[in-house]
Amino acid sequence: MIWFTWRQFRTPAVVAAGALAALAVVLLVSRGTITDLYASVAACQSDCGNAIDAFLTRFYNSAGGTVYYTTLAIMYAAPPLIGIFWGAPLVARELEAGTHRLAWNQSITRTRWLATKLALVGAATAAATGLLSWAVTAWASRVDSAAADRITPLVFGARGIVPIAYAVFAFTLGVTAGMLVRRTVPAMAATLGVYTALVAAMPLWLRTHLAPATHETPPLDMGNLDALMIDRSGGMAIEPNDVANAWTITNQPITAAGQVFTGPADTTRCGPDMPNGSCAEWVGSLGLRQNVVYHPDSQYWTLQLAETALFLGLAAALAIVSFWWLRRRLS
User: Fold this and answer.
1) What parts of the sequence cross the membrane (predicted)?
2) Which of 81, 267, 287, 303 is deepest in the core (most CB within 10 A)?
3) Exposed, middle or buried: residue 90 (CB in 10 Å: 0-12, 13-18, 19+)?
4) What is the CA radius of gyration of the chain?
5) Global pTM?
6) What are phi and psi of 215, to 5 degrees?
7) Under a CB-based contact definition with an 8 Å cutoff, are residues 68 and 60 in contact?
């Protein structure tokens, strides 16, 4: 049964191996660009802000920047593609063609039939995604360190161990959808829809609850009116800077009474004809504070482990559903 499953899966496996090899070559070639551009940051001893900004600007405007954004897209596209093309057809194709009955009539139990498929292709899924994530994470480590953004939603899901859990979940979701629907194309569509909805919900609503966020209300710095982005044309608003090296959930100016401050109701205090500095002076007299809720970079691995456990748990639950459905509902 293992040999037969491998023969069915060998073409996708070879394609995946070729794609990984091609990406590895691109990353190795472009790694030298990062090393050269990072030399000024590595040599910096103190006050390295300008060196870091210069490095990031030059990197994003170089060929390395194109590779960087391409790898981000690949990391987010790989799990759903695995679910669609490896998971959904794995069982649905055999149910659709009726070839599953041939296997069951040759002294192979239903449980062994499904377990072999899940174990072999699932292991290949974890291995391929793990190698991909390791390569991309290692390649982009200096950029992520300089940008201090690995915990932000855009980068978080494309680094570390989370992509492995995404891929295993997507694969198991595809298998389950194929078993329930019994049609390959509808199962592929269902896999894409459910996976996209859940992964999109993580940074929007769910991830922040996986670890306790930090809540602070420091005094609002009114030293620079322009830095606070107060629009002098009439549509007043204050937007404090995000907390450095963190994923900011909430960042609002509030009054002493705890009300969100959006600017004066009219332009009598902060109008376009007011002298420079007078608006900031008046707003500063209000005693505003910055209401900020964020996850510091120190929680990166806590969130990585929690989200990985969540998606692996969902994958295990889907596998249990698949086995139950196979034994009770399929014939």
Assistant:
1) 68-92, 113-140, 160-181, 188-206, 308-326
2) 303
3) buried
4) 26
5) 0.89
6) -120, 120
7) yes
Contacts of 136 (CB under 8 A, 6+ apart): 27, 71, 74, 75, 158, 159
Residue 106, helix vs strand vs coil: coil
Q: Pull the structure tokens for residue 16.
A: 């995946």
**Does residue 290 surpass a pLDDT of 90?**
no
Exposure b/e, 114-140, CB count within 10 A at least 16 = b: bbbbbebbbebbbebbebbbebbbebb
Extended beta strands in 11-154, E state: none
- Name the token pair of 271: 């109008």
Let me know the angle formed at the C-alpha of 26 by 21 and 28, rounded to the nearest 5 degrees. 90
Contacts of 232 (CB under 8 A, 6+ apart): 270, 271, 272, 274, 279
Question: Which residue type does 144 have?
Answer: D
